[in-house]
Design brief:
With 181 residues, the protein is α/β, with parallel strands linked by helices. 41% of the residues lie in helices and 20% in strands. Strands 3-2-4-5-1-6-7 form a 7-stranded mixed β-sheet, with helices on both faces.
């Protein structure tokens, strides 16, 4: 089962995804694939807070900011993966060295290839993304390229997903499929 969960900031996506992944795993191997690469103290505090929130939920955490399909080699077979988040993964792929350098135009396709490998090989995969590309405001070309790339990833992964869920103030809205568990 492949599930894409999207929504705005602080919408409850991660907590919802954690509960869903745990149910899908049904006692089997369960991995939390953390894609954020910390750049400062605030990032490290956020990562530590998220680790504490996951304590006791049965996850083995794999830190993987790029080359997402490589986690398949680090995990047990027939595992359930929660990838949080596509937004951070894509940022890491698009800006591999620094934000001062040009964006990598192949990043979205490279990230999608890895995500589709996970979707095709994992027993269950739950992908978390941020719905940041639909607002009417326009930003710099640099930011718009990022938003367009993330939208491409989400649309493409939605096509491969059994369920597509938007979290809105903690409430799931099913755009494809229905409650799996």
């Amino acid at each position: 089962m492949n599930v894409l969960i999207s929504g705005g900031s602080k919408s409850g996506k991660s907590a919802f995804a954690e509960r869903l992944a745990g149910k899908l795993a049904a006692g089997g191997p369960l991995y939390y694939v953390a894609t954020m690469i910390p750049f400062d103290g605030e990032d490290r505090q956020r990562i530590e807070r998220h680790r504490k929130e996951r304590e006791g939920l049965g996850f083995v955490t794999i830190e993987q900011g790029r080359d997402i399909a490589s986690v398949l080699k680090q995990a047990q077979p027939n595992a359930t993966f929660l990838v949080d988040s596509l937004t951070a993964l894509f940022m890491n792929e698009q800006f591999p060295r620094s934000f001062d350098e040009p964006a990598d135009p192949a990043a979205a396709c490279r990230a999608l290839d890895g995500l589709l490998q996970m979707a095709g090989q994992a027993k269950n995969a739950v992908f978390v993304s941020d719905y940041i590309y639909a607002e009417a405001a326009r930003y710099s070309e640099y930011t718009e390229q990022f938003r367009a790339g993330l939208a491409f990833l989400d649309r493409s992964l939605a096509g491969a997903a059994d369920e597509v869920i938007e979290l809105c103030a903690g409430n799931p809205v099913y755009h494809k499929g229905g409650p799996a568990v």
